[in-house]
Design brief:
single chain; alpha/beta; 36% helix
Length: 244
Amino acid sequence: MNNESQIFGIRAIIEAITSGKTIDKLFVQKGLQGELSRELMSLIKKNGITFSYVPVEKLNRLTKKNHQGVVAHISPIDFHELENLVITVVESGETPLFLILDQLSDVRNFGAIIRTAECTGVHGIIIQKKGGAPVSADTIKTSAGAVFNIPICKVDHIKDAMFYLQGSGIQVVAATEKASEPIYNTNLTNPIAIIMGSEGKGISSSVLKLVDQQAKLPMYGEIGSLNVSVACGVFLYEVIRQRL
């Protein structure tokens, strides 16, 4: 855990949550008692924060300080509200280009994607609050600092984000090997959001049913799929090629 973004102590973590900080990881000592700890647990559940019950030995390994039974890891960036970002982009007159990551789990892939997205003019990256890779020190390093230059939105549900984008005139295009058409036959000059799936499972079937278009990359080798960050780069540069 990166000590620069580590906080500990019940009161400190309560303050972090109430001030709107994004908690990436939260470890709570098993059997924690007391009125203040009950206040913390109520706040955690109210805000839908994922946490793990751990033995005190785990917390002692994370910090030598008086942790009071709780240690948390705060995201190093501030996340954007999707609705506000979409309105800003649409009103700017530029052709919207968003990226949706469905349960991407590897922090280095995440960082590489952020770097390519920043280089290709993506207006914002949309991730789900639960289940995806956090913005960690490894993410920041792999992104070469690009994580600080591109808006990232955390949403409760990918599907709700898709409905909002579609309602705002932005088509959702799925990058999937299940598509019948290659990317080169797909019109990417309109306002679009490209959705990339997780490393192991790809885009979830329930999400795939809601997209406007599906597109795939031609594959000629023995291996059936590309690394997700590489595939994402190919998709984004095809958008650039078509829009130039």
